[in-house]
């Protein structure tokens, strides 16, 4: 920093202010400081700056996996908003494990991130306790709850499952099945699917689950297994589009006409859903907008202290009917 000050012809205090609070520095002086930084290849010590300002300018985000496009879309939207607000994103993967999530929360708290974004609303008691004590803004995503740790931006997984049951029943399908990953949000979709099917007077739901993250190959295998033990099956709801595409492939391989012999509905409405043959019906959720909303909620709290935005943001969902149902 001394060298930057010398080349720019300003004091060290001015260089520090230009880096941490550029809005307080006149444009000509700021330009000289930036030119000196560029000339010298200087990289500011952000740790030192964060000690002085008590701000790291970093937001942590924990997702179950980076291998699924739907979480990537949410992170993309989150990053877009945070970067525009001068914040960087630090990622962690829990791999669907509660202990791993707690370890990541400990790491992010230890690094003094300015805020945290979580996936889902069900966390260990220790995680909830630590984050409430931490006192920084937290946004949960990909589900809804009336009792968030701090704030939540998402949709009701149970209601989404119920909507699919109604969609299939309205089209005359009575014997329904479910293909899903063995994780909490997929479990809520199944619970809503079962609840609504029972309310509509349909027979019990046959289900096949797999350890997450699930693949197209899992969808093929699970579809075959489900039909093998439930030959009267007429339609399946898949907890994600990856499994849905696998189910469609299984139908093609087995010669089951879709949707006449078997209807298939996915979840997330990825690009592959509309591109598949036949086109896959799916539940559309606003994955990228979910990230953007989480970013807006965080920034409102970080910049303004008390957010004017509601603590609970329900982004909703919609059933997109295509050729497969």
Automatic annotation (TrEMBL):
SMART domains in the record: HTH_LACI (SM00354)
UniProt cross-references to Pfam families, sorted A to Z: LacI, Peripla_BP_3
Cell inner membrane as UniProt keyword: no
Domain spans labelled HTH lacI-type: 1-53
The keyword Transcription regulation is annotated on this UniProt entry: yes
Gene3D superfamilies linked: 3.40.50.2300, lambda repressor-like DNA-binding domains
GO molecular function, one term: DNA-binding transcription factor activity
Entry keyword set: DNA-binding, Transcription, Transcription regulation
The protein, known as: LacI family transcriptional regulator
Annotated source species: Cupriavidus gilardii J11
